[in-house]
Amino acid sequence: MDSKAVNPMGVRPIFPLILSMSLPAMMSMLVQALYNVVDSYFVAKVSENALTAVSLVFPVQNLLIAVAIGTGVGLNSLISRRLGENRPEDARRVASHGLLLAVMNWLIFAAIGLFFSRPFLSSFTENPEIIEMGVDYMSIVCIASIGLCMEGCIEKSLQATGNMIYPMISQLLGAITNIIFDPIFIFGLLGFPRMGVAGAAIATVMGQIFAMFFLFFILAFREKVLRIDLRKFKFSGSTIREIYSVGFPSILMQSIGSLMTVGMNAILIRFTETAVAFFGVYFKLQSFVFMPVFGLNQGVMPIVGYNYGAKKRHRVTGALRAGAIIAACIMAAGMLVFWCIPGTLLSLFEASDTMMAIGVPALRIISTCFIPAALGIILTTAFQALGRGFNSLLISVLRQLVVLLPAAFILAQISLDAVWFSFPIAEVGSLLASLLLYRRLYRNYIKVLPDE
User: Fold this and answer.
1) For 442, which DSSP code?
2) 206 with 178: CB under 8 angstroms?
3) What does the pLDDT read at residue 109?
4) Among residues 264, 255, 165, which one has the least CA distance to residue 215?
5) Buried-state track 385-405, b at ≥16 Cβ within 10 A, e below 16
6) Within 13 Å and on the Cβ side, how many CA atoms surround 337?
7) What is the per-residue DSSP string for 257-273?
8) How far apart are CA 160 and CA 281, in angstroms?
9) pTM assigned to the model
C-alpha cells in the first residue's frame, strides 16, 4: 500500500494529530526546562559569582545547542519531505548523513572548549573567581558535547517520521540523570568530591551522553522507517547542502541568540554583575514558557512538511492555524505567571535584594512579548517546514540584532529598567515582518497547492 495512504500525518484530523505528535515533545521540553532550572538552582547555592559565571558561558552553550538542534531541524525538514514524496530510501540516506554531521559538530566544539574558554571569560570580567568557574564549566560542556550533537540529530530524524515517544524518553532520561547528579557532584554527596560549577557541567554532559546511547539503541533495533545501514553509506554533497539549506539558517538564527546574549551581557555588566546573573536566571525561567512552544513546533513542522510534500493545502494551513492558537494560549499563561509571582520565581535562585529590585520589574516588562513571540515561532515553523530557512534567519536577525540590541543600548542610557522594554519592541517589529513574509510564501507556494 502507498505510504501516503497509511501515514497518519496525511489523513488524521489536524488538532488531535498535533496534540499526539506535540505533547510528547512538549513534555520532554518541559523536563529539559526543569533540569536547566535545577542546574542554576544548585549553582546559585554555591554563590552569586558561580551563577554569574554560568550566565556568562550561556551564549557559548546556546551556540552549541543551536548547531546541534539546527542541524537536526535541517534533517527533520528534508526527511519529512522525502517521506511525504514517498521516497523512504532517500529519507534513510538523509538520516545517515546526520550521524556524520553530528561527529563533525562535536569536533569543532571540543576544540573551542580546549583553546578558547579562558580568553572568552576574560573578555567580560577581571574577577578571577568568576573566570575560573566559567572556564571549568565551558571547557567540560564543549569537550564532552558528543552526546548533545548526536542526540539532536537522531531525535529530529525520528520526529520527522512521526515518532515522538522515543525522543521524549531520551529527553526524560537525560533530564533525570542531570537532576540526580547535579547535587551529588556540585556539593560532594555520597562520597564524591565537591566539584562546584564543574560538577554541574559534568552532570549536564552525563545526561546528554546517556540520552545519546538510548537513541542509538532505538535507531539500531527499534526504528523501521529510518533503519540505517552504515555499510551502505555513500557521502553525498548534495544531501549535505539540502540539509543545511534549512539547517544552516536555523543554526544562524539560534546563534544570533547567542550573539544577542553576549551583547546584552556587555550592556548589563556596565550596571552591575548582578544584572548579568539575573539575565541568566531569566533565560532559565522563560524556558518553562518557550520550551513547550518549541515542543509544539516539533510536532507541527513534520505535519506541515509532509502535507506540503503530499500537496495538501488545507492540511498545511490547518496545522499552522491550530499551532498558532495552542502557542498563544501557552504564552498567555506564562505571561500571567510572570506578572503575578515574579518575586517567588526569583527566590528559587537565592536572589539577593539587589537581584529582586532588578528582576521583579524586568520579568513583568519582558513577558509582555510572549504572545507575539508565540505567533512568530509558528510562522518560523512554516518557513522551515517548506524549506525556506532564509526567511527564519532574516526574522531572527531583525529581532535580535537590528532591533533588540540597538534598542537596549539606547535605552541603557536612560536606566537599567528601561533596557527591558527592548524585548517587546523587538518582538512586535519582527512579528509584523514575519506576517509580510508569510503572506508572500502563502501566495507563491501554499495557495497553488490543490485544495483536497
Assistant:
1) I
2) yes
3) 95
4) 165
5) bbbbbbbbbbbbbbbbebbbb
6) 14
7) HHHHHHHHHHHHTTT-H
8) 33
9) 0.72
Question: Which phi and psi (to 5°) does residue 85 adopt?
Answer: -85, 5
Distance CA 148, CA 68 (A): 7
Grid cell for residue 297 = 513546533
pLDDT digits (tens, 9 = 90+) for 6-56: 567 777 888 888 888 888 778 777 776 776 677 788 888 888 888 888 888
d(CA 218, CA 227): 10
Q: Comparing 198 with 3, which gets the higher pLDDT?
A: 198
CA 148 to CA 145: how far, in whole Å? Answer: 5
* Best CA proximity match to 210, nearest among 170, 183, 179: 170
- Can you tell me the distance from the alpha carbon of 160 to that of 226, in angstroms, rounded to the nearest whole number? 10
What whole-number distance in Å separates Cα of residue 93 and Cα of residue 90?
Answer: 5
The answer for residues whose C-beta is within 8 angstroms of residue 123's C-beta and 6 or more apart is none
> Rounded distance, CA 200 to CA 81, Å?
39
**Alpha carbon 384 to chain centroid, angstroms:** 14
Which residue matches cell numbers 495552542?
A: 326
pLDDT digits (tens, 9 = 90+) for 149-171: 999 888 888 888 777 788 888 88
State the Cα–Cα distance between residues 208 and 147, nearest whole angstrom: 5
d(CA 304, CA 300): 6
Question: Rounded distance, CA 6 to CA 248, Å?
Answer: 32
**91 close to 79: Cβ distance less than 8 angstroms:** yes
Residue 381's alpha-carbon distances to 9, 189, 214, 247, 392, in angstroms, are: 16, 44, 27, 12, 8
Cβ 226 vs Cβ 95: under 8 Å? yes
Distance, in Å, from the CA atom of 166 to the CA atom of 155, rounded to the nearest integer, reads 8
C-alpha cell at 372: 507575539
Span between the terminal Cα atoms of the chain, in Å: 20
